[in-house]
Amino acid sequence: MSEFLVIVESPAKAKTIERYLGKKYKVKASMGHVRDLPKSQMGVDVENHFEPKYITIRGKGPILKDLKSAAKKAKKIYLAADPDREGEAIAWHLAHTLDMDIHSDCRVVFNEITKDAIKESFKNPRPINTDLVDAQQARRVLDRLVGYNISPLLWKKVKKGLSAGRVQSVAVRLIIDREKEIKEFIPEEYWTVEGQFLKGTNQFEAFFYGINNKKMELPSEEDVKALLAKIKGNTFQVMNVTKKERKRNPAAPFTTSSIQQEAARKLNFRAKKTMMIAQQLYEGVDIGKEGTVGLITYMRTDSTRISETAQGEAASYINQHYGMEYSQVEKRKEKKIANAQDAHEAVRPTSPLREPNSVKAFLSRDQFRLYKLIWDRFIASQMAPAVMDTMSVDMQNGDVTFRANGSKIKFPGFMKVYVEGTDDQTEEKDRMLPNLEKGDEVFIKDIEPSQHFTQPPPRYTEARLVKELEELGIGRPSTYAPTLDTIQKRGYVALDNKRFIPTELGEIITELMMEFFPEVLDVEFTAKMEKGLDNVEDGKEKWVNIIDDFYKGFEKHLKIAEQEMQKVEIRDEPAGEDCELCGSPMVFKMGRYGKFMACSNFPDCRNTKAIVKEIGVTCPKCNEGQIIERKSKKRRIFYGCNRFPECDFLSWDKPLPRNCPKCDGLLVEKKLKKGVQVQCVNCDYKENQQS
Question: What whole-number distance in Å separates Cα of residue 344 and Cα of residue 304?
């Protein structure tokens, strides 16, 4: 008979831990939370200090029965849920259900599922941290008060099935605000002048810098013509040469936020997928002779801190495989992230010696790719900086100055292993210049002016939105993936070419929320609430006080909204065609993912048709119809005129609602291997590529 019972959340985690603890320990899984607030009601007693009403989650009865049976036979029970607020709350609920003393040494936490970490953690059990539990409870109650009060109001005033939440509503607002910025953006013209220069047989490029060595902009073609008129002959004199050595430090190890961003950039993973696979790597994978092993540390963290043991192991690996010169010599100062809790280490491999290729055969393709990304990032973070030789040269003809910049990688350092991705796809690469000295003469071979226009801010990708939420202090690392998932499932936003766009429904809900519940959508207010929850976790504030302060103002807004919010009728618009099954008119209805076509004779006729999505562009061929998104037989998206067959316009590239600033022609988004590029179909106008 087992003397000790250990309870974790998942069977995979249970299997891994049981291997390390031996025969005296029985490890069972609770399958996540066993108690929660009821789904059918708010479950919060507002009149009694916001006392939550917890019930056993439906379907967890047999699991609890099994746990209670095992608990009666055990000499001692250990609760080993994840090392965060949610894990602490799971342990607290289990303790209450099993009649355990929460002040006894029953709680075991570990940042990685390895033999040494597990055994060490069981040497140092502790009581349940009620401050952590209160912080989780406060968030749960707060979200209930918002969701279960506003959602029924939206059902009554707009339509059933809608929801509102603190973090999700702010995320939708950010997307809508960005869309507004894009629509209101007015491009401004500017020019650059590139010159191809020769020093002997060596050719290099330089750009116009300014007049009399003072930087000058070129806002119009007239300015360019005036500049070119100033250049006499084809000889320029080198006036200044600046040579420097520049160091570039590696990116810090991953946090929850940065791993979601980088996996989106480099692996094309959605946030939800990244966290799901990271959970698998953390809980343990069978890797042959070693058995089931946790490959990475806990993946919900906002810290870039690394333990001294892990730093030492990484240094040994780097010295052995790359040489002493590649090992980090000076300890870098850890960059503090605003509002970071710093409860755990960064996301890293549990052992740097476990190279990705050594476990590749035991991992799925996606598991391997994410593990390699984490391993590469960690090893690179512990390596020496890259060293770049840079050279800047100013060349003058009369009072016209051109500047050339060159760089060369002198020592690759961490770049030998990994370079952080960027949203604009820029890369560090050699741009060589010939050996130039002050007083040298160079000759201009060719000169080419280029017209440009400033561009609107890009729409949010999942990675950009996660970064924005983190920088604003909205939500916590564990909330980003479910938040992004929720706002799409509710139909408030949609993904268009991997970028978020608001739906009509999302705009309606946000407008109502802004009018009646401005504090819920206020970015600063929401960030302040997160800080309050952190204070609860640190034992600086009582959770009831945080909720009470919020509810006083919220309750007033709620009463006003119930009285003054007008019913929003989303009418079915005529689709302009008849149902092919019963002959009744087809109408546009608002669905979960925007508008769709359905028969007006519902429910007698349940005919629906594929979503015909208008993109807000008038047909450039007939100037009467609207461009709509269609799908070919092979499910490939293309764009055509809704007056087809009268108008046969079609395009595989998405037309844009603004015209080319150069020739007034049609602008389209052309999909490239990495991102998209806006370009004109009539002239050579192009905008910088977006990731």
Answer: 9
- Give dist(CA 133, CA 130) in Å, integer: 5
User: What is the model's pTM?
Assistant: 0.77
pLDDT of 589 reads 75
Range in 336-340, 460-464, 528-532, 653-657 with the lowest mean pLDDT: 336-340
Mean pLDDT of 546-562: 92
567 vs 104, higher pLDDT = 104
Q: What is the mean pLDDT of residues 44-61?
A: 93
Q: Look at residue 689 and tell me whether its pLDDT is greater than 70.
A: no
Instruction: Name the one residue in this structure whose structure tokens are 């037989």.
Output: 633
Cα–Cα distances (Å) from 94 to 75, 78, 87, 111, in that order, read: 17, 10, 11, 21
d(CA 551, CA 563): 18
- Of 20, 54, 298, 492, catalytic: 298
Give how far the C-alpha of residue 291 lies from the chain's centroid of Cα atoms, to the nearest Å. 33
- Per the prediction, the chain carries an average pLDDT of 89
- In angstroms, the Cα distances linking 691 to 91, 455, 686 are 42, 14, 15
At 489, list the tokens.
Answer: 């499932």
Is 298 among the residues known to form the active site?
yes
Q: Are strands 25-29 and 4-8 parallel, antiparallel or unpaired?
A: parallel
Q: Which two tokens stand for residue 273?
A: 């997928």
Buried b (16+ CB within 10 A) or exposed e, 95-131: bebbebebeeebbbbbbbbbbebbeebbeebeebbeb
